[in-house]
Specification:
- The chain has about 80 residues and is mainly alpha-helical.
- The protein contains 3 helices and no strands.
- The radius of gyration is 11 Å and the shape is globular.
């Protein structure tokens, strides 16, 4: 499973969405209406899954932003 696929899975589970609704270009706040609590939980899940710490949540807008952050910061 790629980083993108795992992040898509975490987001779809958290927000109770269909798999096809979350793409790399999906804006987390605007396209799938994730509120700050949803985003907090998604980020926590990603941090746990990839054993990283995401510090710049404000710079993360799309699913691809999350993928890029994880790829740049995981061991």
């Amino acid at each position: 499973m790629t980083t993108l696929e795992k992040i898509q899975e975490l987001i779809t589970e958290q927000l109770d969405l269909e798999a096809g609704e979350v793409k790399a270009t999906t804006n987390i706040r605007e396209d799938i209406d994730a509120d700050s609590l949803d985003l907090f939980q998604i980020i926590n899940d990603i941090e746990d899954e990839f054993d990283i710490e995401i510090e710049d949540e404000d710079k993360i807008n799309t699913v691809q932003d999350l993928v890029d952050y994880v790829e740049a910061n995981k061991d």
